[in-house]
Structure formats: C-alpha cells, structure tokens
Structure to design on (256 residues):
C-alpha cells in the first residue's frame, strides 16, 4: 500500500532501500503532528516535556501513515552507549542504542534530534537493524558492533546488506571541544584554520564503519538533509537549545 500524499509529509524514505520488496524504512519529519511550539509539530519523543497526549497522537499518525501497528514496534530508552539488543518481541527496552531482529512484522525504531540514525537490511537472511549513533556511539564503533552482532546471530555477509545513514547534524554545524575531536580520525574531522575549532562529520564516520565491514558503497544511501540547515523540516537539539521534539527512524519487514 502506497502512503497518501498527506501522509508523506510525516516522513521521508531513502529510495535505495524503500524499493526493496517487503521492507519498511522511513524517518519522520517534524510535520503533520499536533504538538505546539517548541515541539511543533510531529514530536515523537517520549522523553520530552511535551504533553504525552500530543506525543501519543503524533505516534499514532506516524505509524498509521506507514501502515504499522504501534504494538508491533520495538524501541529502547537510549543512553548514548554502544550496546546492541537482539529482540524478537515488540516493546520498550532500556539501555540499548541499537536493535537487531530477523522477525517479520517487528519494526525497530530509534529516536534522534541531531544524532545519526543508521538503518541496515540483510536481504539474504531478512534481518534488520536500527542504530542510534551520537558522537559517543560513533566513536565507540556502534555501527561496527551492530554488524558484528548481525553476523553472529544471522550469519550476515556484507554483500547482502543495504544501509541508510540518516538525517543528523551536519559537519558545518557540529563544532566540538578537543576532548571530543581527539576521538575522531582526520578523515572525519576538520579544523578551522582561523578559529581553531574542530568540526566532526558524523555521516562520514558512520558510513566508514559500514564500508569497513565490506558493504558496497552502491548499497549505502546517505541523507542529504541536516537537522540544523533544514531545521524547518527536522528537530535539532543543538540548534533549538534543547527545547525541541524528536524524530523516529524505523525499519522492519512486512509479514509474508
């Protein structure tokens, strides 16, 4: 079933992955919800100060637009760590920043508002992963750890995988202190020659973990959007000084 034009304002889908049969993959925008400022309008975050009734209605709209039953979603209270959970049941877990499963009709979701959502699909073994990669998770190699877990659990091979590196804070907007900068290699870090500030490219750092595993570059889609530069369409914790909503990135397989 194709979403209606009105439903499409609630999310965007990477063409590379959404064209694969039976795969649901999407990340929400900030449009089409009921939340007032500063959460306007499709705030899907359960750990914000928004009215829980607004969040519940927003989530209902988002999942309905994707024709997903909310009680078939698995997510976790994220802690900016690097722990990976193998899950076979929907529900709200605690303490994991990456989820993996090979169960159909189980949809994995991660919450973001500057951090990187990374969605992975093993087409041969019909297994999926949803990863929340902030700078801490990226520096800890959470994408690499997730792929290792998929390899151990599902016998995942790189050539069978497709991945999406989603919308996050862009490199020009993500200046960091020296303690953070030293955790990133030169290919993912830029030092401004005038100010001396360091800027980190989270998209490239996470893409590198995918290609280091062996996933072909042609199997990887990278969002062209920024939570800061495209703040009219996405929430940004940094740009909005913490007073903002959250997006969801979701991946899963339709039942046969």
């Amino acid at each position: 079933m194709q979403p209606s034009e009105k439903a499409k304002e609630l999310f965007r889908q990477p063409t590379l992955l959404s064209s694969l049969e039976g795969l649901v993959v999407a990340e929400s925008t900030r449009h089409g919800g009921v939340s007032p400022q500063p959460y306007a309008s499709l705030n899907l975050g359960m750990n914000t100060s928004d009215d829980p009734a607004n969040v519940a209605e927003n989530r209902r709209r988002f999942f309905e637009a994707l024709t997903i039953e909310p009680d078939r979603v698995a997510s976790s209270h994220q802690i900016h760590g690097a722990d990976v959970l193998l899950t076979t049941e929907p529900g709200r877990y605690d303490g994991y920043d990456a989820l993996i499963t090979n169960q159909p009709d189980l949809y994995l979701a991660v919450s973001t508002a500057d951090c990187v959502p990374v969605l992975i699909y093993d087409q041969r073994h019909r297994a999926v992963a949803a990863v929340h990669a902030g700078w801490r998770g990226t520096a800890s190699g959470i994408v690499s750890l997730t792929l290792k877990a998929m390899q151990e659990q599902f016998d995942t091979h790189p050539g069978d995988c497709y991945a999406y590196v989603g919308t996050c804070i862009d490199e020009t907007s993500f200046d960091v202190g020296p303690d953070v900068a030293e955790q990133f290699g030169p290919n993912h870090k830029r030092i401004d020659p005038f100010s001396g500030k360091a800027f980190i490219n989270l998209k490239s750092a996470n893409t590198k973990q995918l290609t280091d595993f062996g996933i072909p570059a042609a199997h990887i889609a990278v969002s062209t959007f920024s939570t800061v530069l495209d703040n009219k369409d996405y929430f940004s914790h940094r740009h909005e000084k913490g007073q903002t909503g959250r997006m969801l990135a979701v991946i899963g397989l339709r039942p046969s």
Remarks:
- Residues 5-253 form a domain with the CNF1/YfiH-like putative cysteine hydrolases fold (CATH 3.60.140.10).
- The chain has one domain: 5-253.
- The chain has a mean pLDDT of 96.
- The chain is about 20% helix and 25% strand.
